[in-house]
Structures are given as structure tokens and as C-alpha cells.
Specification:
Globin-like; mainly alpha; 8 helices; globular; 79% helix; 151 residues
Amino acid sequence: MTIVQFLQNRAGDILAEAYQAMARARLKSYETAGVEQTKQRLRALYDLVVQGVHERNLAPMRVYAKAIAVERFESGFDLWEVQTAFNVLEEAIWLHIMKELPPAQFAEALGLVSTILGAGKDTLARTYIGLASKTHAPSLNVQSLFAGTEG
């Protein structure tokens, strides 16, 4: 089974786990958006991961991340909330890869998923920071990004 086939076959389980993690995180802006919209947003992000793996192309993820950064920034989402959506999806994908794929496929699968989501997170953060530097932005809570780090 290819990595794309694996991701397509496991989409329901992975997205359910990612959504549960989002719900446990109690993200104010996503709770306000509601269950269905949050699930749709996770699905759109997941579909871009699958597309990126299939095409070996980061451009669609970067375009999407830039667009949602502007949308979420203007809607008052904190950057860490949107980053959390990326992170919970990545974690759910990783868990399924590690549990279900043969070890010989780990490096490629994890590398592809992390590269695609990493490009999205990088674009998201750069766009948020660019927007925040142009205006006073209560939606940019940088301290939250560093909570729990050492040194």
C-alpha cells in the first residue's frame, strides 16, 4: 500500500482522533465556530496533506495556509489555536503511521507528512506575524507559543 492509499483509507479514523484532540484542547475560537465547521476545516487541511503527499508539492498547502492565516487573524483567532489544529492532525497521522505501517515506510511517510504540515505551519506563522506587525493584534499571543519550553 502506498502512503497516499494509506492516508486515504485511514482518513475517517485520523480525522476523528484529530477532532477529539481539538475538543480536548478547548480552543475558544474553534468552539465558537462549532463542531461541523471545525470538522470541515480539519478535513480541508487533511485533504491538502494527502494532495501534497500524492503530488510531492508544497504549493497548495502554502497557499491554503496563507489564506487561512488572513481569515483566522481577521476573525480574532489566536495563532496558537490555528497551530494547534495543524499539530493535532499531524499527531493523529503520526500515530496511525507508527501503529499500522511497516517500519521500512516510517521515514518516508513521516518525512512527507511533517514536511507538508511544516510548510503550512511556517507559512501560517509568517503570515500572522506579518499581519500583526502592521496593526496592534490581540490575536497574536506569542507567549502561548513558548509555554513549557526550557532554556
